[in-house]
Amino acid sequence: MIFLTTVLALFALLILGTPIAIALMISGLVGYVLTIDFEPGLNALAQIAYGDLNSFVIGAIPLYVLMGQIMLKGGAGKDLFDLAQRVVGRLPGGLGVAAIFACAIFAAISGSSTATVATIGSISIPEMLKRGYSRRMTAGSVAVAGSLGILIPPSISFILYSLVTNTSVGKLFMAGILPGILLALLFALYTVVQSLRENRLGIAEQTTSETPPLEWRALGSLAMIIIVLGGIYLGFFTPTEAAAVGVVYALALTAIFTRTLTAGLFWAALRDSVVTSAMILMLIAGAGIFGNTLSLLQVPQALAGWLDSLQLAPWEFLIAVNLLYLVLGMFMDASAAILVTVPILLPALQALNIDLIWFGVILVINMEIGAVTPPVGMNLFVVQSLRDDYSIREVLAGSLPYALMGILGLIIVMLFPQLALFLPNLVN
Predict the structure, then answer these.
(1) Are 125 and 34 in contact (CB under 8 A)?
(2) What string of DSSP letters covers 252-311?
């Protein structure tokens, strides 16, 4: 009854529009109060929140957010899109492919799906429409490719997952690289095939004279990935230290060398980073409180016992969990879903000997697909907000074929776990 009351309190608060972090805290407190009384429950709430946030790994989150904001305000998005145009712009559907690859690269710098969609979309969508690309493909390619921001490292979703499962952040970062490249290639393949079908509608492909010149600033942005990820994989610094190095490099690149980051833009980057980081940290605290309440009520243990009694094979369990996350992705963002559900599923994952690194990649791909499914597919609304003449239905229709390619990529990663585990095992 206490568990049921706690869950009903959570759903009631969410229905009323309470922010997820606050809803998790209040419902978690309800469970503690009903179990151990009000004052001890309130004390436990404060201790749990402090304990969950007092972590060296969590220090990476605001630093990666700040790094991405500095690169965003410093104009890295346009430089990367121009570079992608130079490399693939003359392919069929070249501008669409360039937008997808630019999203993939910028996602590796910013770690944010919505920032990636807003940045690359504002640059690529007008150019694609001007050249005769269909409105649906133009919207869908950017909306879905932007979701690569939570898979391609450095990824805040992987940092949160590592906190919950006690797995290596560095290994999770490595595990996301090949699946991220696979998904980007699948999205690009669909764009090429679809553009060949639409060429009869008059798509004006890029000519040699229209190819943007190679800017060294874009190479400077690419060097960010090499410095941050290379430093982690070669053992020069931890993921948290890499985030600090990334911030220093981003400042040097945009404020000193390219001089695209003004004092006003730097202040805006700081402000946006504080807001985003505070939201994430509040969510971590709220999920920690709610998760501890479930542990106090023996819910994960009961769930693990129930699953054990069903005698499910690992693949049967994975199919059920994938369906769960595809549905959750329609209502929750990746951070909330990871922090709320993974502590509950963790005992079952361990009992079935499912590799936690591989499962983390599967989970994040599911949440990528959720980023373009209503009613809370944030990427859909970001793309729609970029153009007054776009309807949300139009953006959704353009995104669905790309989402199906994402599901195909998910199936491939499930069938071939080494796609996710090859690089972590290679380092071992």
Answers:
(1) no
(2) IIIIIIS----HHHHHHHHHHHHHHHHHHHHHHHHHHHHHHHHHHTTHHHHHHHHHHHHT
DSSP label at 131? T
Cβ atoms within 10 Å of 283's Cβ, excluding its own: 23
Alpha carbon of 270 to those of 149, 207, 278, 423: distances in Å?
Answer: 20, 40, 12, 34
Q: Which sign does the torsion angle of CA 210, 401, 376, 168 carry?
A: negative
CA dihedral 148, 331, 382, 182 (to 10 degrees): 20
What amino acid occupies position 342? V
Residue 312 in contact with residue 352, Cβ under 8 Å?
yes
CB 101 within 8 A of CB 146: no
Phi, psi of 178, deg, nearest 5: -65, -45
SS (H, E, C) 22-82: HHHHHHHHHHHHHHHCHHHHHHHHHHHHHHHHCCCCCCHHHHHHHHHHHHHHCCHHHHHHH
Cβ contact 70:266 at 8 Å: yes
User: Tokens 């890499």 correspond to what residue?
Assistant: 242
pLDDT, tens digit, 9 for 90 and up, residues 329-382: 776 677 777 877 888 888 888 888 889 999 999 998 988 887 777 655 677 777
Cα 225 to Cα 320: distance, rounded to the nearest angstrom: 35
Asked whether 296 and 31 are in contact (CB, 8 A), the reply is yes
> Rounded to an integer, what distance in angstroms lies between the CA atom of residue 119 and that of residue 272?
15
Nearest to 108 by CA among 213, 55, 184: 184
Place of tokens 């269909």: 134
Alpha carbon 58 to chain centroid, angstroms: 16
Give pLDDT, residue 208.
47
Confidence category of residue 422, pLDDT binned at 50, 70, 90: very high
Look at the alpha carbons of 424, 168, 362, 319 in this order and tell me if their dihedral is positive or negative.
positive
No. of helices (H) and no. of strands (E), the chain: 20, 0
DSSP 382: H
SS3 152: coil
Please give the sequence-ordered ranges of beta strands (E in DSSP) within 72-209, or none if there are none: none
Reported pTM = 0.77
Rounded to whole angstroms, the Cα distance separating 383 from 125 reads 9
Query: Does residue 190 carry a pLDDT above 80?
Result: yes
